[in-house]
Amino acid sequence: MKTVTLHNKTFEVFISDTEIEEIVHAIANAINNSGIKDPLFISVLNGSFMFSSDIMKKITIPDTEISFIKLSSYSGTESTGEVNELIGLGKDIKNRNIIILEDIIDTGITLEKIISLLKKEDVADIKVATLLFKPDAYRKDMQIDFIGKSIPNDFVVGYGLDYDEIGRNLPHIYKLKN
Ligand code: IMP
Ligand code: MG
Fold first, then answer.
1. Among 28, 63, 96, 168, which residue has the fewest nearby CB atoms (within 10 Å)?
2. What sign results for the dihedral spanned by CA atoms 159, 161, 162, 163?
3. pTM of this prediction?
4. Measured torsion, CA atoms of residues 114, 167, 14, 46, in degrees rounded to the nearest 10
């Protein structure tokens, strides 16, 4: 399938399933060789579910754990700004070596929120692994330790990533066709 139509927009293959597999393999190797002990992977739902599943099968570090979170945002009735909290972190992560698993880092706003929420839990260390990274859109200065592939500032979909909630099931990563 070279192109796919989602919500009346046409997308074309940008990163094939075989290339994705190579990228995931490279990230897993880098993590396996990093010296991180007893890691607790934290997969950021929904977008990271496919990446998380594939990379976990390639992690060979002893006593590896994985947990899943979702970032909820809502407007408080009295506060002015947006309030965010982590849904699903139903365990004590004090003194743990965390590796955040993200599908894509764009502006970095989401990552910044996740890191600030995790830091409140007295974790030992936080590393970040992302399948895709948009350097031209990134507006933060947090270190991203493991980057699968840096891509231009195009909208992509597939392999967990959605376009208005659809397209997550696609095995390749597609980008909007011009
Ligand atoms: P950030 O907070 O700007 O870094 O954006 C992070 C979130 O925006 C990701 O977790 C995705 O859910 C979404 N996102 C950013 N770029 C794309 C894209 O190209 N396709 C699909 N979702 C995206
Ligand atoms: Mg996401």
1. 63
2. negative
3. 0.93
4. 10
Q: How far is CA 152 from CA 3, 135, 136, 149, in A?
A: 19, 7, 7, 10
Choose one of 9, 49, 104 to mutate for the ligand 1 pocket test, by most ligand atoms within 8 angstroms of C-beta: 104
Ligand nearest to the CA of 151: 1
Say whether 106 is catalytic: yes
**Stretches in the chain below the pLDDT threshold 70:** 1, 72-83
Residue 139 Cα, ligand 2 centroid: separation in angstroms?
17
Tokens found for residue 92: 């004590």
Protein residues with CB under 6 Å of any ligand 1 atom: 47, 103-111, 155-157, 161
- Give me the count of residues in the chain: 178
